[in-house]
Amino acid sequence: MALKKKLLQLFCLSKKDSKKKGKSIDPLWGASAPHSSLSVTANKSHLDPCSSGTGNVLSMQKLKPECSSMVSSLTRTEHGTGSSDYMLFNQFDVVQDFSDHHYAKTSPGKATKDWVKAIQSEWNLLQKNLPVGPAGTPYHDGLFFFDVRFPSEYPKCPPKVYYHSGGLRLNPNLYESGKVCLSLLNTWWGNGCEKWGKSNSTMLQVLVSIQGLVLNDKPYFNEPGYKNTAKTTVGEKNSLAYNQTAFVLSCKTMLYSLRKPPKHFETLVARHFHERECAILDACSAYMSGAVVGSSAGSVARYACDKCFADFKKSLTLYTEHLKTEFAANRSRLLELERQASAVDEIVPVS
Length: 351
Prior knowledge:
Blueprint: H1 2-10, E1 24-30, E2 40-41, H2 44-47, E3 57-62, E4 92-95, H3 113-129, E5 143-149, E6 160-163, H4 203-214, H5 233-259, H6 266-288, H7 307-345
Parallel strand pairs: 1-3
Antiparallel strand pairs: 1-5, 2-3, 3-4, 5-6
InterPro entries: UBC, UBQ-conjugating_enzyme/RWD
Protein name: UBC core domain-containing protein
GO molecular function: transferase activity
């Protein structure tokens, strides 16, 4: 009963009707890129359903990023070192204020034994098996935020997932409205195991699908109408052009995240982009010089000097300047955040 009560508290559900807000998970996603490594992980001490805590929302964060030479953020052969400050950010944590969460005002339902059992199972899965994404995508070095809610009918129905798009459509599966189009979430058609199944589907599968199937190296072919053009001259040409657009929109998403980070992720966002700014700007420079988006530093693949590339170069040049300005401001914000954190640490409670 103590465990069940704890789970109900964490996920804002009650046996009886309650005025408490709906509970959800905030996984922070960083997509992958060449010569880099990025993963989402869970800190066991903050994921244990039996641990102490009095907040309402569970947050999830990625593992500290590794350094890279040009375009970065997943599966690399040479490992760099990231700031130890990343490890100070709780991978899973309970917070009191989740007012900017998309499902914060959603009315809770009645908890069931199946719901509690499923959440406990998810908890155990996520702390041990969070996914690592593939390399070489137009989403490298970006941070992508999703709000998740487990309805009272869960696991009979899939979780509700909302993407913080900033009004941008950088992937066929991620809408400006925040909709995540995925068979596993029953927001797109599918057959058999592609659809949500109460006895065998998990939140871990949803995260793996977003990282590996949505934020992939050729998102153009995620569109049903274009899937059959894969490996054709026209299809591959259009895919390259789509990746150019996706990277520019990813840069705009970086600006959006820097200017308006989700609650409780302010310091993590500031530190992430402080550590990744050189790699991001190096990638922008390489792409403006003709390197293919998502390619490694030593790749010989180049864009043709046509109108499509000229338009891409013009847009990327503009947003590179915006990023430089925002990165400079971010350094100042990070210094202030760390100053505030140090001041809090120095406060000695009076006994």
